[in-house]
Amino acid sequence: GEVMTAKWSEIGSDNIWRLSSQKTKNGRQQIVPLSEGALAILEDIKQFPEPDDYIFKTARSPHIKHRTLQNATARLANNAKIANFTPHDLRRTAATLLRKTGTRTETLKKILNHSAGSVTDIYDHYNEAAEKRLALEALGRHLEGITADKGLLRAVA
Question: Terminal CA-to-CA distance of the chain, rounded, Å?
């Protein structure tokens, strides 16, 4: 939901996507350092400027709706003959790949905007922006390696 309603105004000149506490499911502000791959995709989208602030939109809506994403995912899963696939599976896969590329569990939790569930969270306000950036860059390189010979990453964008 956060990606579907992403806005250009949420992305700073430092290439960090800042989500307000009102936008996140857990009610906590989130910062997402954007990888070079993500920035390249956003640059491609900027070639088709629209009058509003939403990044991802459809012909009938200012931003992608949940139902639109579900329908597209169902078509892709059906064509690929993958059973029981949902958009949330991409989040799970990204988390698994982040750990595979060496991301610490604490950093992964910050990327996913999860609470560690301890009293320490009350005191620890360090956002791990540098660590998140390194992890997301590593994930981007890993995905590029998987998809480079097939041209898949650009085809999805």
Answer: 18
